[in-house]
Amino acid sequence: MTQTAPGPGPSPEPSPAPTPASGPAAGTDSTAGAARPVVRVHRIHRAWFVAAVAFVTIIGAAAFASLPGLLIEPLHEEFDWSRGTIGLAVSVNLALYGLTAPFAAALMDRFGIRRVVALALTVIAAGSVATVWMTTSWQLILYWGVLVGLGSGSMALAFAATVTNRWFVARRGLVTGILTAAGASGQLIFLPLLAWLVENHGWRPAAVTVSLAALAVVPFVWLLLRDHPADIGTTPYGGAYTAKPAPVPGAARRALGVLAKAARTGPFWLLAGTFAICGASTNGLVKTHFVPSAHDHGMPVTAAAGLLAVIGVFDVIGTVFSGWLTDRFESRRLLAVYYALRGVSLLFLPMLLAPTVHPPMVFFIVFYGLDWVATVPPTIALCREHYGEDGAIVFGWVLASHQIGAALVAFLGGLARDAFGSYDPVWYASGALCAMAALMAMVIRRRSASGDGAGAVTA
């Protein structure tokens, strides 16, 4: 059925019978005396279909994030590269993942979500498959570090933030949690498969699988994803009809301009600092070094990868629940609790590693999994609260700090293992950093009620 979009005056009562909309996206309502878009309303709002496509896209792209931790030992054995060298390639990947995100968010405003994401998936596929023929470490850095890093940065959480900001007014926290959990769902799907391939057939078939998974998602993006509700004549979920904004030129200039403006405010640095520690204690440490660390204690690679996949199960639950909580409770307090609990769990991990999986380790996996990326929904909410329409780009820069933190620990973790013969010092240091992040989260003040945007907030 159709109903008219809100106009300047009182909205007319909807027609008792459905009125077909004319044109490719929407018709006009002449009864109000002026041409206004006729908004299409569906029994299930179209925003949920867009969110579903984004969810599947992120799952398909999650294959690339599942592989680095599985590559360290095979590449070390085949090419005799040090773990520090391999960790450097992973750190380049993670750093570019983060640094690309704010520019990708601006590019989505300029060229649309579909074009940017489809191109990013193609670059990921090319970089992953190219590693099959590499023979030197600089090629690993170029293919996996640079190409996959740039592609994955454009598929980063800024994608989820952009979709949520455009298509949802109500339930933003919940949708953010669901889309964030998609990465964990992909990890759950791909980690066991990739670990089995590496263990039984070598790392090359696993790299090809990542490439095929990225390519398989491209048709879903191109055919089913839409950039803005106005493209199909509908409203954001829980909001009023708004016209599609004109493309924003100068994506790089806008991204840098938003950074310059946000960098003059305290909340930006606190959010960037806490999220850098988040990246250090998740992607940089656990996702990259958990499998080789467990293998150091005699645990088979497939068993360690299976534990990471189980983290993904509880990550889905924890992140969706965190999104629900973000719609109801103060975000900074949620962040403080999340970081404090994560820090405690990491301090205990070195005592739990063993050749076999035992109940205390299972408890850690469940506990840590619930907290893995539960920090994302409240962090996005704080970016939106303090920086308004620039919130997605600001979050892109905050995400860049997340990945820089992850990159440093991915590299330093490998160096620590080469130097000390153990990952234990890195686990303890990460636990202490999480305690610091909890304190930083509590320092973030609420947005001033009298101001608007970044200029109204102080640390």
How would you describe what is shown here?
- This protein is mainly α and 459 residues long.
- The protein folds into two domains: 1-41, no CATH class; 46-236 and 246-456, Up-down Bundle (Growth Hormone, Chain: A), CATH 1.20.1250.
- Helices cover 71% and strands 1% of the residues.
- The chain contains 18 helices and two strands.
- It has helices spanning 46-61, 63-66, 68-79, 83-111, 113-130, 137-154, 157-167, 172-201, 203-224, 251-262, 266-281, 283-296, 301-326, 331-352, 359-371, 376-387, 391-420, 424-443, and strands spanning 2-4, 38-40.
- It has a two-stranded antiparallel ribbon.
- Helix 1 (46-61) runs antiparallel to helix 9 (203-224), helix 11 packs parallel to helix 12 and helix 16 crosses helix 17.
- The longest helix has 30 residues, at 172-201.
- It is globular and about 60 Å long.
- The N and C termini lie far apart (49 Å).
- The relative contact order is 0.15.
- Mean pLDDT is 80; it is low at 1-36 and 449-459.
